[in-house]
Write a structure and sequence with these properties.
- This protein is an all-alpha fold and 220 residues long.
- The protein is built from 10 helices and no strands.
- It has helices at 2-10, 25-30, 37-64, 68-77, 82-102, 106-114, 121-131, 136-159, 163-188, 201-211.
- It is globular and about 45 Å long.
- It starts with a helix and ends in a 9-residue tail after the last helix.
Length: 220
């Protein structure tokens, strides 16, 4: 059950709204920072070790049972871009709906009541993992995979990149994904004050620019 639940939660078809977001890849493509598989790999690696680590630790902390209200504040403090905070809450609201339908529990119901406009998506993912009987490492692995798979999928659409090349990028990043997930879970076990706050200023800047575009393919 545990392994199957992990696959369900990490599945790109889980209706949490992630397909509408590029994780910053759309702005990077327009700026010429992603033009091929090598550029995608560099972008994903940078995102993995910054925002990916931070988000994975938040999810792991939620899966451990840390206060989701404190975690929401911690997520806000670690997300300086208003556009990214808005995107995270939209994704969190959608994931809350999907998780409550999939793994009904009082904790998710309470979260939905307390944050009708949504809380940060990693916090919801961690609670969903907890509801599914998963642990902090599982939640962290879901986040780190999503951190790189979202931009990879977006690059296929934005650049007509060969899907085989995009998948190869993910496969080569797998050992680093494992390492980041382990670091995130270890930090979460030390408490909220020990959660990492790794940042990617360029992602914050381009997120604000992207939000102002009159025409765009992805929501973020």
């Amino acid at each position: 059950m545990r392994r199957s639940a992990l696959l369900v939660l990490a599945d790109g078809r889980f209706p949490a709204g992630g397909h509408a977001h590029s994780g910053g890849a759309e702005a990077a493509v327009k700026a010429g920072r992603i033009t091929d598989a090598a550029g995608l790999a560099a972008f994903c690696r940078g995102r993995l070790h910054t925002t990916g680590l931070t988000s994975a630790a938040l999810a792991a902390a939620a899966a451990l049972g840390h206060d989701p209200y404190e975690l929401d504040q911690a997520a806000d403090a670690r997300t300086p871009s208003p556009a990214l905070r808005t995107a995270a809450r939209k994704l969190g609201r959608q994931m809350t709906r999907a998780a409550r339908a999939t793994w009904p529990c009082a904790e998710l119901d309470a979260l939905a009541a307390a944050f009708p406009r949504g809380t940060h998506q990693p916090v919801v993912l961690g609670l969903a993992a907890r509801a599914a009987g998963l642990g902090p490492e599982d939640a962290a692995h879901c986040v780190v995979y999503e951190t790189v798979s979202g931009p990879a999928s977006a690059a296929v659409r934005l650049l007509s990149l060969d899907p085989f090349q995009a998948t190869a990028v993910l496969a080569r990043l797998a050992p680093e994904m494992d390492q980041v997930a382990e670091r995130a879970a270890a930090a979460a076990r030390q408490g909220i004050d020990h959660l990492p706050a790794a940042s990617a200023p360029l992602l914050d800047i381009t997120a604000e620019q992207h939000a102002a575009w009159p025409v765009r393919l992805f929501a973020s």
